[in-house]
Design brief:
Number of helices: 3
Structural class: alpha+beta
Radius of gyration: 17 Å
Strand order of the largest sheet: 3-2-1-4
Distance between the termini: 37 Å
Largest sheet: 4 strands, mixed
Number of strands: 4
């Protein structure tokens, strides 16, 4: 019951933001000209977050310097057996998006001066990603 109320509050807040954006078409996202061209990725998952299907809700966002350039949130297509598996799935989706953005930035002649930093809050998923023996 508590999760449903929290979800309803978040939906209401998101609708409020969308109504504000629709009512103020001259407003937009601000991107600094002096920002760096370093890509940074953040990913997270809410294991079994959907109360009906018990599927995980995942999301990620990517920053170019200090500017948000890509974000995504959705319910996973498969049911994860653990929070680690849910986190690992969203990390894989984030890496796909990072790879696509890296190619796009290369085509736009935006030089990447450093490696992409990716952040995840699940230590076991991070250890699995670093150890190639665990990839099955």
């Amino acid at each position: 019951m508590f999760e449903y109320q929290a979800l309803h509050l978040h939906e209401a807040a998101a609708l409020k933001v969308l109504r504000y954006i629709k009512g103020n078409p001259r407003c937009g996202l601000y991107y600094r000209a002096s920002s760096s061209t370093t890509l940074t990725a953040f990913s997270d998952s809410d294991w079994a977050g959907c109360v009906d299907s018990r599927k995980s809700i995942t999301g990620y966002c990517l920053f170019l310097g200090s500017s948000l350039i890509s974000w995504h949130s959705k319910k996973q297509t498969k049911t994860s057996r653990s929070s680690c598996e849910a986190e690992y799935r969203v990390m894989a989706a984030t890496v796909c998006e990072v790879q696509w953005l890296t190619y796009l930035l290369h085509d736009l002649q935006v030089e990447q001066t450093s490696l992409v930093s990716m952040f995840c809050d699940n230590q076991l998923a991070i250890h699995i990603a670093h150890n190639p023996n665990y990839h099955e």
